[in-house]
C-alpha cells in the first residue's frame, strides 16, 4: 500500500504568513523566511515516501507552487475550513485514492530530519496514528494508517494545548498511538533565534544543516532584531 507524504503550505505572500515573526521584524522579511522554509523542505523531502502531495493555499496559487516543486510533488488545493477540517479532508481523499498510510507535516520545521518521516511510516505498520510532538505544545507531524480517526474536531488550533487535546480524543484504547522525538516549529522571533543557533551549531560540528535557502537568510535579519545585516 502506498505511503503518501503530505506537505501543507500557504504561499508566502507578505502579511499572509509568519505573522508573529512579522510583528517582530517585517511582513516582507517574514515572507522571505516562509519562502526559504518551503524551498528547503521541498528539496529535503523530494524522495521521501512513495508519493508526495503538496496541499496548497490559496486556491489561485497553484502556478506559483508548480514552479517551486517541479515534478517532485503533486499539487492539490487545501479544503475550506479550519486546520482540522483541512487535514481530515486531505487524509480522507488520500485514503480514497488508495493510500495505505499518510503522513502530513507543515513548513514550519525546515531542519526536521527526513529520517523522522521514515520513522513515522515505519511506525504506521503497527500503529493507527503517529504524532511528532512540537515544543510549542502542538505537533509538527501527524500520520494515520487506513482511516482517519476522530481527532480533528473541537481542537483549539494554534494554541499550546493542541497535542494534549489530540491525544485526549484518542480515547478508544483499541487505537494504537506511536510517537516521534520532539522537534521545534519556527513561528516567533524566539523560534527563529533557536533555529539560528541550531544551524550554527551544526555547521560548527561539521554537519550540513541541509537548509541552504534558510541559511542564506541568517545574518540578514532586519535591524529591529538587533543583529547587524552582513554582506
Descriptive overview:
- The protein is an alpha/beta fold and 231 residues long.
- The protein has a single domain, classed as Spore Coat Polysaccharide Biosynthesis Protein SpsA, Chain A.
- Helices cover 37% and strands 18% of the residues.
- It contains 8 helices and 7 strands, in the order βααβαβαβαββαβαα.
- The chain has a 7-stranded mixed beta sheet, sandwiched between helices.
- 38% of the residues are buried.
- The C terminus is likely disordered.
Can you list the strand order of the major beta sheet? 3-2-1-4-6-5-7
The first-to-last residue Cα distance is 50 Å
Structural class by sheet pairing and helices: alpha/beta
Q: Supply the number of structural domains.
A: 1
The poorly predicted ranges are: 226-231
Nearest-angstrom radius of gyration?
A: 17 Å
Q: What is the general shape?
A: globular
**SSE order, as H and E?**
EHHEHEHEHEEHEHH
Query: How helical, in percent, are the residues?
Result: 25-40%
Mean pLDDT, all residues:
93
- Approximately what portion of the residues adopt beta-strand conformation? 15-25%
The description of the largest β-sheet is: 7 strands, mixed
CATH fold-level name: Spore Coat Polysaccharide Biosynthesis Protein SpsA, Chain A
Amino acid at each position: 500500500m502506498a505511503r503518501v507524504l503530505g506537505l501543507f503550505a500557504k504561499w508566502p505572500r507578505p502579511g499572509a504568513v509568519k505573522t508573529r515573526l512579522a510583528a517582530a521584524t517585517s511582513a516582507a522579511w517574514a515572507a522571505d523566511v516562509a519562502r526559504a522554509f518551503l524551498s528547503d523542505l521541498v528539496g529535503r523531502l523530494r524522495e521521501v515516501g512513495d508519493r508526495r502531495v503538496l496541499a496548497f493555499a490559496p486556491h489561485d496559487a497553484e502556478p506559483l507552487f508548480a514552479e517551486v516543486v517541479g515534478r517532485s510533488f503533486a499539487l492539490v488545493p487545501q479544503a475550506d475550513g479550519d486546520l482540522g477540517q483541512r487535514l481530515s479532508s486531505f487524509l480522507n481523499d488520500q485514503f480514497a485514492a488508495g493510500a495505505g498510510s499518510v503522513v502530513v507535516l507543515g513548513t514550519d520545521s525546515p531542519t526536521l530530519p527526513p529520517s523522522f518521516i521514515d520513522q513515522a511510516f515505519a511506525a504506521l505498520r503497527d500503529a493507527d496514528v503517529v504524532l511528532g510532538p512540537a515544543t510549542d505544545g502542538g505537533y509538527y507531524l501527524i500520520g494515520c494508517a487506513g482511516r482517519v480517526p476522530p481527532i480533528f474536531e473541537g481542537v483549539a488550533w494554534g494554541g499550546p494545548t493542541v497535542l494534549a487535546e489530540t491525544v485526549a480524543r484518542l480515547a478508544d484504547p483499541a487505537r494504537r498511538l506511536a510517537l516521534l522525538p520532539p522537534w521545534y516549529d519556527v513561528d516567533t522571533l524566539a523560534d527563529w533565534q533557536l533555529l539560528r543557533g541550531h544551524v550554527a551549531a551544526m555547521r560548527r560540528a561539521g554537519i550540513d544543516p541541509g537548509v541552504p535557502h534558510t541559511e542564506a537568510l541568517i545574518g540578514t535579519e532586519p535591524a529591529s532584531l538587533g543583529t547587524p545585516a552582513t554582506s
